[in-house]
Amino acid sequence: MSKYNFPSIIETNELSNLRLEVRNFITKSINDGDFSPTADAWVFSASPDFSKKIGTMGWLGMSFPRKYGGHERTALERYIVTEELLASGAPVAAHWIADRQSGSQILRFGTEEQKNLIIPKITSGECFFAIGMSEPDSGSDLASVKTKATKTNDGWKLEGRKIWSTGAHIAHYMIVLARTSPASKENRHEGLSQFLVDLSFPNIKIKGIEDMTGQRHFNETLFDNVILSKESLLGEEGKGWSQVVGELALERSGPERFLSHFTLLEKFIGEFRISLLKSGSSLVGKLIAELQTLRRMSFSVASMLQNGNSPETQAAFVKELGNRFEKMMIESLREISNIIPLYEWPTSLQNLFEDATLRIPSNSLRGGTTEIMKGIIARQLGLR
Amino acid sequence: MNNELDIISETTTKIFSKHITHELRQNINDNNTSLINLWKDIEEQGLTKIIVKEQFEGSNLPFNSILPVIQISTMMGVPVPFTETIICNYLFSELNISPPNGMITFAVETKNIKILNNKVSGNLLSIPYLNLTDQVIFITDIDKEKHLVFIKNKNGKMEATKNFLSEPRYNLTIQDCEILTIKKLNNNINFNHLGAIIRSAQMVGAMEKIINLSIDYCSQRIQFGRSLSKFQAIQHQIAEMAVELAASTAALASLNNFNELTPKLEDIAILKIRTGIAAGKLIAISHQVHGAMGFTKEYELSYFTKNLNSWRNDFGSEACWQELLGKSFLEKSNLNLWEYLTNKSI
Questions:
Q1: Does residue B162 belong to any structural domain of this protein?
Q2: Which architecture, in CATH terms, is A131-239?
Q3: Who among B243, B249, B341 is closest to A5 (CB)?
Q4: Directed axis angle between helix B232-253 and helix A312-336, to 10°?
Q5: What is the pLDDT of residues B139-159, one digit of tens each?
Q6: Distance, in angstroms, between B174 CA and closest chain A CA?
Q7: CA A188 to chain CA centroid, nearest Å
Q8: Contacts (Cβ under 8 Å, ≥6 apart) of A358
Q9: CATH says A2-127 is which class?
């Protein structure tokens, strides 16, 4: 039964107190005009100022060791904070990737020097990361990356292109997956390594790509013979694949997989609560059941991570269900719009709905497609 | 406690694998000696009294201990009122009445109940396995308070219902039937909630079995020169089922937080909704990947999918619980959705 197991984790009173603390902070920030809530804020809404504030509150790098500026709190505490930030539509995009995965990756595989250099800046909300996995010719088939790092006398020379690097234009670093030796016939996953690349280095070009919603968060990042020191290697040479798989488990199981558009749902209900009570209770009940189940699963995965497990399959379950929930949610609101016509919605709600509708197709692409998630699950079931 | 539960789970598995065959499931009647032997073993091992108080020779484990046991029993497709008896015994024990021996079943619903001079008349609806036992309990309102009534069916009018051709079910019409026990239910016990919980646990067990059957079938069945399981389209269909099961087990696990039986209404609603949705999907997908073989009576898939259909409807379908859950939130106008979702006292 273990494959499907999501042990139930109780939110202690301490965690609930932390939740309220974050909530009060957010309410105050909104009242002070620091930000207005948006949907999909962890991708689209970056505010270095806000990130710094969050850092000052001690809510970045929460589980990192104290000696690197971290707070040695639990993954469950971090979960509570991220949930509150997401549900409120706070502008968290700037620090999101650094706090979610890059910091942990450096702590796990990095050298003492790398940790000392970078982790304190992540926890203070002053150092942002972009993901360097996908390439123009490598998406779902990540092991086929062509970006190459060649050994030189005193380090490495990096050449290649990364794409869909969200936030690279404001990020300080990118963890780049590159080939350091040819793949063997038996194992394509051999010969890959991860590099910690300072994006201010010469010969790096970052070009924005406009997405279908008219926004620029995507980038193409070009590495044209970028000179890297020996110290840029992250982890072990040739072990990039196993490192990247662990990173993906952090990337896939979090509450951003189902709370990206929560602000829309909240606002919608706030606006139409009385009408919904008359003719939409059942749809609302269904959404609550799905959402609450997802929260439990994701919280449970946080506790697995806390206990040092690598819940790759469970993360795939959360991501797949979460993506599906968000699509279902938009469709449900559309269904209700038969009762309450769209043109009667307040403009701000209409805008939020249109934004969400436009952005929703990307949910089941970023962080691994639906097909990849199902592939991971099928492998776990012994079908591949 | 976990240790004791592990032992119980192991015993359950052992007894059931010794007795249960698909043939047995197709001959559910009271002359079937294999069924009688199976029941004898179940009772001898105390499996029907796991959550019964010690003074009634029970193991006195917390309520949620039965969930894994029920899951195992339905995964193995036990064709006797095992879950029903567990619940009836529990109710007796909680009311400080010594549970009777043997199989006991319950009426899911009742109609036109009239009680006079310790005799009861009326319609008891949807009673599982009434062909195997005459011991029945049902819940009825007396002066707006829920009461448990225990009878032995001697000469009531039994009418088999279709029940999706799933486990045998009967509607029973009784006339001046003698009441063996009648007692007001404790306030913390809600029969409808109990029913929703056990049916959900049963669905989770059956769904795991259905996925295992699908994996086995698709791995053995060769078409176009390779096993079906090698086709990505099939792999994704089976993964889809696993996703649904994962959500259902997570919903079920939330009940493990409760050692006393007062799980929150919201948690029960979420559980019944989530497992019901999953059941619908699993029925469709598992039959799709099994092809015509799954549509035969001889192959065991349909035994499990038919049960899912039936349990999905018992004690409130998803539609009922969705309505109830949606209202329970919308009516609390002092809370926005996020406050509601994160409020532990709800």
A1: yes
A2: Beta Barrel (2.40)
A3: B249
A4: 90
A5: 999 999 999 999 999 999 999
A6: 37
A7: 26
A8: A212, A213
A9: mainly alpha
